[in-house]
Design a protein that fits this description.
The chain is an all-alpha fold and 176 residues long. The protein has one domain. The chain contains six helices and no strands. The chain is globular and about 65 Å long.
């Protein structure tokens, strides 16, 4: 059984990398369009700020469209995929900035510094939680780890495994 679970987790992560490649391609296209179309109109800093929000929408849209195919089997796997995407995107952004665009370390750091107008920390937070958000939007959940219920829940509407409230139906109050 453990070998089967290992293959399932491995498959989820391979699919997660494939989805991230799609996200990276979409973000690259968005970056080119931003420089060509938006930056001449609103300036470099403002166009980068706007692109964080439009890029976040693109990321969540791709994550939502691919959430069933991803095949994650619970909140832990979804968070792990989000952290995988975060690590890959940070590496991609830094390598692209340094090697392709020739940006200095200070210029790259400025994109992540809200005091200097950089909003990429927000974008990176979005990519980290995108698999969870997408699974919630699509209703993709393993019944044993992400049960649905009508009672109040955590911030994303999920309960923890073994939470009796998730599987115990509520009885109506007795009449006097």
């Amino acid at each position: 059984m453990a070998r089967c679970e290992d293959l399932s987790v491995r498959s989820t992560f391979v699919r997660g990398v494939a989805i991230w490649v799609l996200i990276a391609l979409a973000e690259t296209v968005q970056g080119v369009l931003r420089v060509l179309m938006l930056q001449p109109v609103v300036g470099e800093l403002r166009s980068r700020q706007i692109a964080v929000f439009t890029g976040s929408i693109v990321i969540v849209a791709i994550a939502t469209a691919s959430s069933r195919w991803l095949g994650a089997r619970g909140r832990r796997e979804l968070m792990a995929v989000g952290l995988l995407w975060l690590g890959l995107m940070l590496a991609f952004e830094i390598l692209l900035g340094r090697l392709v665009a020739g940006f200095s370390w200070e210029r790259i750091a400025a994109d992540y510094d809200p005091r200097r107008g950089g909003l990429l920390l927000f974008g990176m937070a979005v990519i980290a939680v995108a698999p969870l958000v997408a699974a919630r939007i699509r209703g993709v959940a393993a019944p044993d780890e992400l049960p649905r219920r009508a009672a109040p829940t955590g911030s994303l509407g999920w309960t923890e495994p073994g939470d009796r409230r998730a599987s115990t139906p509520r009885r109506p109050p007795r009449a006097p």
